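The protein record passed on for reference:
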Amino acid sequence: MRTVTVVGASLAGLHAARALRAEGFDGRLVIVGAERHRPYDRPPLSKSFLTQRPPGDVELADLRLCDREEEDALAAEWHLGTRATALDTAGRTVTVDDGRTVRTLRTDGVVIATGAAPRTLPGPPLAGVHVLRTYDDAHALRTALHDGTPRVVVIGGGFIGAEAASSCAALGLPVTVVEAAPLPLVPQLGPDLARICADLPARHGVRLLCGTGVAALRDGGTGRVRAVELADGRLLDADLVIVGIGVRPATGWLTGSGLRLDDGVVCDAGGVTAVPRVVAVGDVARCAGVRTEHWTSAAEQPATAVRNLLAGRTVARHETPPYFWSDQYGVRLQLAGRPGPGDAVRIVEGDPGDGGFLAVHERDGCTTAVFAADRPRPFMRLRRRLATDPPGSPGPSGTPAAPAGAPGAAFWPYCSAASGHRCAAPTPGA
């Protein structure tokens, strides 16, 4: 294999390039990125990047994922500000467009790492409406947030919406979060923990409206958003709207390539697609039926996929339990594993009423996931055990004992192994 093209120059693409060189690939390495920026770290964009003001504000240079020395060591051919528009798997070419010219790059192997793009609301674009995915998105949003005291409506109560709302609250701005589901984060955390976490916004002055969608954005004929009309008829005044309603995998350029596309690029647990010498990693990859949008998955998957790419078949699988974290309202939330809808939730340390706590999801006597709010050290211990315990074992908690001084599960006010999803957590503010 003389040439490998990595399509996507963010976290997963950079890790793929690193893995190729680490595996001894000494051929031509091409990296294509739609953004004009070198790889940078995205998690701060919804947090410290938004809240800090000059002169101490975070800038792009502070977010860079690799320095000039490492770039030189990669010896890669960078095509930034260049969008891939087609993949010819038979002819082994990638078509790219930098806005001025369209070119075709010949390649022997391809790593697809194009990530995902934020979903948007239907209708014409309005000034004052933002999404938050890229550095440019975040820079535009930060400028708007620091211009006066805008009334902010966040549409979507998922992680990106929650973190953006938290940052707005930290700036002292009036914030309302609109979530169409009865509770935010139920798919990620399950109803018990989602109910507990839904109390966070109200405790920090953020209004959370659940169970209603958005009917329209109103501009009063000015071209700038003035209000958000909800599906139940309510009207929310808004100077600034942040749309955080999820993402869609960036696979449009792969239409007609022969790759199977179904909520991402379909591949096995090793990132290997059905087309020889084409692998997929990161947010765009649907590995073994699951697509994850976590930083750690984007950082870990490429090593496995690249090894398989160079071997020409699946010789390794990425089976580490998914892990993510989120910083909201001064609380660090962490989850590792694969919680299911029928899991019981048991708190093994701390007290949700006081803030920090550690909980496990359990099913048929096995631990399926570990969750923590401001309990990083015990969480990491259980996360490591979750990764090393084989499937079907009693699990990393091993029916963990409550720490000394902690209340017994039977007396826990929110959740217990016995109560399961019948637990009585605080009702979120509305």
